[in-house]
Task: inverse folding
């Protein structure tokens, strides 16, 4: 099948981390979840689809990293103590860290599709997808692009108020 | 022709302030609501609060207006009035249920924002406050574009002290510069917590890279003020009450009031300069 021949073929479970509300700890939870799963010996990747405010690179101390291409697409940045967690974020594509990504929906959708299909994840037990707040372009495009694959489900993050 | 329509509708708006961040959950809506309340305390001023956070509209709840609906009249959509001199508009008022998700792509969101500006009968307004969602995307591009038919005095950018917020806020500052939107200044929220029992101060969100103060120095932007964390703020927001009215003695209230005054002064000066030019 097409799914078997793609970059997500070796990913066993895909988890979305959502909220609706900003600033409740989605990126923090995504990061901690990835580290905790890695600690139990699982192979883990993180896909950061927050294009306007990508927080994951800094949280894993790779904000100055760059990404490279290989035959099957982009090579993720490997992070964590044993450099075994694969990470892709728009943060790695910015020329300068303070550059604003001022894109309308269609351009965001195009990049998200690329992030889903063109990153050479390899074999992973879990791919955690961190999202921005809201229920808009990024969310619709991410779910649409991931639907053919092993989408386990969503974790929703909130604060008490 | 569209620009002319918007210009006509917005002609009676004297000052427009955008409340932005880049980062979510830092207190944009809270600040927008309190700025509106603070400005409307002067009964001679007419204040309008426009909530363009289409996916997560917080303003109706914060202003105690949940469940209100928008009425149409011959002159357009009627804002929902909290006070005689404080009118509010939000997508929240258009939902049949508060839990309904607005799952729209950019173009549809842009369309509604245009409608908010074109079809709402704000009347004569001294201050139009626009609350925005986090980010630098459709809503932000559109509001700047549509309001260019009128004018924007400037943007107030809200942050919290930690680097994870500041890194998004620097992007927002760059966005403002890119679209030539003047920056009135930055507000640092959740800046320290004073325990009501022991009076000790704690940094709940430690400014590991110098907080908003350092960022403002580096980027040559005004720091309007720092607002400490006060649990009463969240409580007032949940209950739809003005925190400034509920906790007049709180250090946070004092901070907010100072910041609001600085924004007013900026707007009045700006207007004066414009008049001078004319």
Result:
């Amino acid at each position: 099948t097409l799914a078997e021949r793609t970059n997500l073929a070796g990913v066993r479970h895909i988890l979305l981390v959502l909220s609706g509300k900003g600033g409740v700890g989605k990126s923090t939870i995504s990061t901690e979840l990835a580290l905790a799963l890695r600690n139990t010996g699982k192979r883990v990747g993180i896909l950061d689809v927050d294009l306007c405010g990508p927080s994951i690179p800094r949280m894993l101390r790779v904000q100055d990293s760059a990404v490279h291409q290989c035959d099957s697409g982009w090579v993720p940045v490997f992070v964590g103590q044993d450099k075994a967690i694969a990470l892709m974020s728009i943060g790695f594509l910015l020329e300068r860290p303070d550059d604003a990504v001022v894109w309308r929906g269609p351009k965001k959708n195009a990049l998200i599709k690329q992030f889903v299909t063109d990153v050479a994840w390899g074999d992973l037990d879990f791919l955690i997808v961190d999202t921005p707040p809201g229920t808009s372009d990024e969310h619709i495009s991410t779910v649409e692009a991931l639907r053919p694959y092993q989408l386990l489900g969503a974790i929703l993050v909130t604060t008490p108020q | 022709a569209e620009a002319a329509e918007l210009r006509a509708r917005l002609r009676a708006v004297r000052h427009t302030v955008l409340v932005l961040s880049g980062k979510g959950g830092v207190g944009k809506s809270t600040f927008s609501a309190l700025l509106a309340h603070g400005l409307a305390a002067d009964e001679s001023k007419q204040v309008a609060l426009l909530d363009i956070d289409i996916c997560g509209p917080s303003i109706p709840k914060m202003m105690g207006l949940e469940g209100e609906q928008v009425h149409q009249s011959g002159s357009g959509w009627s804002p929902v009035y909290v006070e005689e001199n404080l009118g509010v508009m939000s997508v929240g008022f258009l939902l049949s249920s508060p839990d309904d998700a607005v799952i729209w792509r950019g173009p549809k969101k842009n369309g509604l924002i245009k409608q908010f500006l074109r079809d709402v009968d704000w009347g004569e307004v001294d201050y139009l406050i626009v609350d925005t969602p986090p980010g630098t995307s459709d809503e932000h591009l559109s509001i700047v574009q549509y309001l260019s038919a009128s004018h924007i005095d400037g943007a107030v950018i809200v942050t919290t002290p930690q680097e994870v917020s500041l890194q998004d806020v620097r992007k927002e500052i760059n966005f403002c510069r890119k679209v030539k939107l003047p920056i009135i200044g930055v507000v640092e929220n959740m800046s320290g917590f004073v325990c009501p029992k022991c009076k000790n101060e704690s940094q709940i969100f430690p400014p590991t890279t110098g907080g908003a103060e350092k960022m403002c120095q580096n980027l040559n932007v005004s720091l309007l003020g720092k607002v400490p964390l006060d649990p009463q703020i969240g409580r007032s927001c949940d209950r739809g009450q003005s925190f400034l009215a509920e906790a007049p003695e709180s250090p946070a209230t004092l901070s907010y009031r100072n910041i609001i005054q600085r924004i007013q002064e900026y707007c009045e000066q700006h207007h004066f300069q414009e008049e001078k030019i004319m």
Notes: Chain B has one domain: 1-276.
